Amino acid sequence: MDSFSSPSSGSSSQFNSDAFKDQLKNQLAQAYAEEFLETLRSKCFDKCITKPGSSLSGSESSCVSRCMDRYVEATGIISRALFSGPPH
Amino acid sequence: MQQEKERAMINEMVAKLTTVCWDKCITGTPGSKFSSSEQTCLQNCARRYLDMSALIMKRFQNMQ
């Protein structure tokens, strides 16, 4: 699927900058999602799978679950601390 | 466009700081919620990073 094809309706001689901006936003969002996922994998593997066994145990799975929740929470805490803290 | 750039930079910074501060502050196995000392550590971490950044800029300018 050619994701860069121009829209068939309207002025095809003009570059549609709105469509371009939307595409850029989507790709940026996707890139962030992938980066975030990679960070989650890395952090939670470190914290939760300390001695890899022959399968994921129940406690390892719940640890990963909690780890993901905590990491998302941490992102919120950092974000708020940066942008709504006391002036320094 | 400019707004998007700023938003992207802010997201970058938050993401980076979160990985750094997570390593500094969450030392044990993740629990079902943060302790208040973990929360405070995360907040302090972000703010002290900004303080340090300002300090570095200031000193760096004096080096020029």
UniProtKB/TrEMBL annotation, chain A:
Superkingdom classification of source: Eukaryota
Alphabetized GO MF terms: metal ion binding
Pfam families associated with the record: zf-Tim10_DDP (PF02953)
Subcellular localization(s) per the UniProt record: Mitochondrion inner membrane; Mitochondrion intermembrane space
GO cellular component, one term: mitochondrial inner membrane
Keyword field: Chaperone, Disulfide bond, Membrane, Metal-binding, Mitochondrion, Mitochondrion inner membrane, Protein transport, Translocation, Transport, Zinc
Written domain comment of the UniProt record: The twin CX3C motif contains 4 conserved Cys residues that form 2 disulfide bonds in the mitochondrial intermembrane space.
Function: Mitochondrial intermembrane chaperone that participates in the import and insertion of some multi-pass transmembrane proteins into the mitochondrial inner membrane. Also required for the transfer of beta-barrel precursors from the TOM complex to the sorting and assembly machinery (SAM complex) of the outer membrane. Acts as a chaperone-like protein that protects the hydrophobic precursors from aggregation and guide them through the mitochondrial intermembrane space.
Family label: Belongs to the small Tim family.
Protein's recorded name: Mitochondrial import inner membrane translocase subunit
Organism: Ficus carica
Automatic annotation (TrEMBL), chain B:
Principal location: mitochondrion
GO term, biological process aspect, one: protein transport
Bilayer topology term: Peripheral membrane protein
Record keywords: Chaperone, Disulfide bond, Membrane, Mitochondrion, Mitochondrion inner membrane, Protein transport, Translocation, Transport
Function noted in UniProt: Mitochondrial intermembrane chaperone that participates in the import and insertion of some multi-pass transmembrane proteins into the mitochondrial inner membrane. Also required for the transfer of beta-barrel precursors from the TOM complex to the sorting and assembly machinery (SAM complex) of the outer membrane. Acts as a chaperone-like protein that protects the hydrophobic precursors from aggregation and guide them through the mitochondrial intermembrane space.
Subunit and partners: Heterohexamer.
Protein name: Mitochondrial import inner membrane translocase subunit
Organism this protein belongs to: Ficus carica (Common fig)
Classification lineage: Eukaryota, Viridiplantae, Streptophyta, Embryophyta, Tracheophyta
